[in-house]
Design brief:
Strand content: under 5%
EC number: 2.5.1.145
Number of helices: 9
Subcellular location: Cell membrane
Membrane topology: Multi-pass membrane protein
InterPro entries: Lgt (IPR001640)
Radius of gyration: 19 Å
Number of domains: 1
Shape: globular
GO molecular function: transferase activity
Strand order of the largest sheet: 1-2
Amino acid sequence: MLTYPQIDPVAIAVGPVQVHWYGLSYLVGLGFAWWLAVRRTSQPWSVLKREQVDDMIFYSALGVVLGGRLGYSLFYGGDRLVQDPTWILRVWEGGMSFHGGALGVILANFLYARSQRIDFGGLMDFVAPLVPVGLGLGRLGNFIGQELWGRPTTVPWAMVFPADKLQLTRHPSQLYQFALEGVLLFCLLYWFSSKKRPRLTICGLGLLGYGVVRFMVEFTRQPDGHIGFDAFGWMTRGQLLSLPMIALGIYLIVSGYRKQRAAAH
């Protein structure tokens, strides 16, 4: 068994103002996305110019925050939202959904692409590799904040989270997600997007990769207490939400390469 490292979840405190590691992870993730986007505008296949990156990142940040909060409220807090609609505004109480954030980013970039007359498919291919690092950092923030821990287990690397009232040895599932959603998915998308690919296949790989990884890690992650298992006595809400991502990702990749082959003939 490993010992959980005692890390103060508050990264910076100035008087009554506190900045948590989880919130800081969003800022660092957006900063990295901006830096990588600026670098990639020099690629001949880039649909964005350097001067458009700042606005794209701003639109995406709004999509992440608004979509993530709205998605969590609808996907995970439906009953609470019905009882108290103002709860959706109390972001300081926690609660963000990746699936909602992903939908928010897609919608935000759709609106941005229309306003700038940019090809939406090309823009989504540009954006996809920018996402995983922020995801990975967010999972580290969850680990430090002792949120979204794993199911009880006896594996040698299990640990007891001090905030767990049951004091059970659990999977550090946040670290699994950091490694798979953050590091592995970034490396895969960075490599795949290093040269021109059929339209929407990079985005498709991002959807497929995240969906598969999230579906797998959910087997080690403790289901939300107020939801439990959704289907068949073993499937979680996160797994159900990942299935459409997997299906859409496969469709985009297959259709993209089919169109490329058809155009070649």
